[in-house]
Task: inverse folding
């Protein structure tokens, strides 16, 4: 019986938002107002597509983007936590479910030699075109009214669990580690023995706290973290059970 660790990426594994960090490549490190104001709620992927077009049209190339992205700091304690998971892979399956994109996550994890820690990464597909534009697509389509149209993390998690069950893999416990509003939907999928670990002071913690105040708490346990060292302490306890 293994444990399944589910990580968000932005503001969880890394201490920034990878999509806004890339703006450091733009002229004067900012976007024109018209482009910034073109974002519509629930359509972040399309907005980032326009950002990538703007960067390419201003001469920003793949190698410069890659150099910039690999300077993003990891969250406090995260390097040690990922090292601990890597050393205990017989106990943990580990996946990322993120609204970033495949190119950014790949660059960042490979630069730090952490790609091998994760069994699968579920995020928006991305690739560079022959003309040097970074293009991003929606991860999937879904019918969840609570999630942005490109990604319902609950659907991803449920499909992954179902696929693992078909292969005879049943998890003793799921630990979900995240920070954002779009992490609430998958947390509501978790059961009594599972653990949601929201980052202290971020949207997910506030939403879970509000649900508890409204007497509509989630079924799983909730354990708040501020440094990834807190997560590692909990995982060490798990391994001793």
Result:
């Amino acid at each position: 019986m293994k444990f399944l660790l589910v990580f968000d990426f932005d503001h969880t594994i890394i201490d920034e938002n990878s999509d806004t960090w890339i703006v450091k490549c733009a002229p004067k490190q900012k976007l024109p107002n018209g482009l910034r104001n073109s974002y519509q709620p629930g359509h972040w992927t399309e907005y980032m597509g326009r950002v990538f077009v703007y960067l390419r049209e201003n001469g920003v190339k793949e190698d410069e983007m890659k150099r910039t992205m690999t300077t993003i700091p990891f969250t406090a304690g995260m390097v040690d936590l990922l090292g601990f998971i890597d050393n205990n892979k017989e106990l943990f399956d580990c996946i990322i479910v993120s609204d970033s994109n495949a190119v950014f996550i790949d660059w960042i994890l490979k630069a730090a030699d952490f790609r091998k820690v994760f069994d699968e990464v579920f995020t928006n597909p991305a690739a560079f075109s022959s003309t040097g534009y970074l293009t991003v697509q929606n991860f999937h389509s879904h019918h969840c009214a609570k999630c942005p149209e490109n990604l319902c993390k609950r659907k991803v998690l449920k499909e992954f669990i179902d696929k693992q069950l078909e292969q005879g893999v049943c998890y003793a416990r799921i630990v979900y580690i995240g920070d954002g509003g779009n992490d609430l939907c998958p947390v509501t999928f978790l059961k009594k023995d599972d653990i949601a670990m929201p980052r202290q002071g971020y949207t997910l913690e506030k939403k879970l706290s509000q649900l508890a105040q409204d007497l509509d708490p989630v079924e799983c346990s909730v354990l708040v973290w501020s440094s990834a060292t807190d997560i590692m302490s909990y995982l060490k306890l798990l391994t001793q059970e």
Remarks:
- The mean pLDDT is 93.
